[in-house]
Amino acid sequence: MSSNASPHADCLVFKLEEYDKSPRRLDNTLYIVYDYQIEYFIIRGRRRSIPGFPSPTYSFECHDVNRLVDFIIYVFGADQIIHETLLNCKTLPAEGHDITFEMLQEADHDSIHITGYDDAIFTKERLVNILKILQNVFNCY
Fold first, then answer.
1. Can you give the C-alpha Rg of the chain in angstroms?
2. How many distinct structural domains can be found in the chain?
3. What pTM value is reported for the model?
4. Centroid of chain to Cα 125
5. Is 4 helix (H, G, I), strand (E, B) or coil?
6. 39: alpha, beta or left, given left = phi > 0 and alpha = psi -120 to 50?
7. Which pLDDT tens digit goes with each residue over 91-141?
8. Is residue 141 one of the residues assigned to a domain?
9. Range of the domain at 100
10. Strands 26-35, 8-19: parallel, antiparallel or unpaired by DSSP?
């Protein structure tokens, strides 16, 4: 990184939230970042916590869109209610490996939402297309 470069990234983040059908409640949240420097997708996620037992975060990294989609489908399962949001985060670390779930969750507020869809149809084809957009549409570091 040059001496004039910012220590923060201005990057797009794709958030997926899975909801239980009955009772309807948030079950799983994950954020997907594409790190252009290392050409990898990075997932940071967390399941809903049970009172007295905080849920640990999880991570997944890969360069292949199809492997990423397989992981997401495995974590969320089939036929789920999904909310999706595209965020423009301006204060993330420039190094993707330094980005945590807590950082993404703290940065996530309405003022940085570019677009979002509630109760989106969750299919492998749709997810692959969205991730290819994330991979190819970005802001400069």
1. 15
2. 1
3. 0.86
4. 17
5. coil
6. left
7. 888 888 899 999 999 999 999 999 999 988 778 888 898 898 888 876 554
8. no
9. 26-136
10. antiparallel
